[in-house]
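Convert to structure. Protein one:
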Amino acid sequence: MSNLLIVDDEQSYRQLLSLIFEGEGHSIRTASNGAEAVELLTAEPADLVVSDVRMPDMDGIEMLRTVREALPDMGVVFMTAHASVEAAREAFKLGADDFVTKPFDVDELKLIVKKTLEKQALIDENRAFKRAQRERGSVKNIVGTSAKMNAIFQMIETVAEVQSTVLITGESGTGKELVARAIHDLSPRAEKPFISINCGAFTETLLESELFGYVKGSFTGANTNRKGLFEAANKGSIFLDEIGEMSPAMQVKLLRVLQERRVRPVGAHEELQIDARVIAATNRDLKQMSVEGTFREDLFYRISVIPIHLPPLRERSEDIPDLVNHFVGKYCDQSGRNLAISPRAMHMLENYMWGGNVRELEHTIERAVALERTEEIQPERLPEHITNYNPDRIKAEFELPEDGLNLTAHLENLEKTYVIEALRMTAGNQTKAADLLQMQVRSLRHLLDKHSIRTLSAQMRSGE
């Protein structure tokens, strides 16, 4: 049984159509004009609207134009005693399914309604199938059965149903974008765009243009109008990765967008209304940054309405075997191979600390699958720093002296040492050094200034 809305200003037609389609087993509501139909559809959508075109107060075309954005897939069949090419063209442009002329043949109209409802059922079935595939795919990509990951899965399902801003925190490589995409795919916005941007990959000026767009002539090279990512993500979700790298000026502009839900393209005089759910992520401590004054406190609270923290892999080592098998299967499928992981190799993988988290593990398995020529991945296919890893030796090297130590000074010195070593290994190339340290270039430059070694980078580049 389907829910039909009959719209006609003539009571005789409303009564006739009600009798016809009630006899077909459908649930019927009626409206005498377009305005009344809009009210009824706002309160409860219909599977199909059978409507006259010409009516007082609001005609059928205007009625459809009013509700189409909210009900993009609702079936619509128009009736008219005054058929015109212009009316038919506008009706089909708005997504009407068919157009019949009064007086109509009852059997013909019944057939049109039946076919339209069958088409709607196929659309609904296809959408449900695609949604189920997308949901399974999103969650399937987040592997883990540990208690911590089960809590993450439950949180994803819970927050997907609401519209609040989410802040995902965790070390680099823990899978923050996978969680963001799963939230989107499980949400009512799943059919709309999911737009992702790394805030640390752009300068302040470029980030503003990317997020908000710009108008022609607003700056050199702006030869056309360009839609910003917030506008592109309208009705969907926008993922702001590495939000902690955003400059203070951009933080102010983002806060205003979140408060007012409006953006102003660079060079424009008018603002655009936007409706995009914001999901942010960072590997930095934004709370501490807000205390230090490097991240706005009001923006921190605005984006962290719902916080989700992803644990590092070393805190959920029981998930390593599942992750290893998942990645072995993934890269075997891509290469058309069939490999297993040897017990010795698995033991080494389980005992390693994984500073680069799941991303490092995935790259390790991708490399091993590519190099292995037997039927099992052997320890020899793993990097030396994994096969040579000895937790007992590491523990001895970091044994706390009996008289204690100044932890802050020790960590500062260790940090400086690693930065210098990364610069040495890359001949002073800051971009490559940042990659080695798994951080943004902007963060590396901050450390260079912090330790007063920015000139050292230039000296290494020049070979001094």
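Protein two, convert as well:
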Amino acid sequence: MDDVCCGLRVGDSVPEFEMETFDPQKGLFSTFKLRQNMKKGWWTVLFFYPADFTFV
């Protein structure tokens, strides 16, 4: 398995970022901030489908 993706290597820190999110249970939009999750000690799993924004 290749250990390089998108300019990051396994073990590298992810750069700080913010992104808009949607909670379907509450029906609300909000902003996810990586820094806030890290301060709380929460793990974060990132995944995406770059060509598939299916808002149902």
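Residues 48 and 54 are 12 Å apart (CA to CA). The two ends are 34 Å apart (CA to CA).
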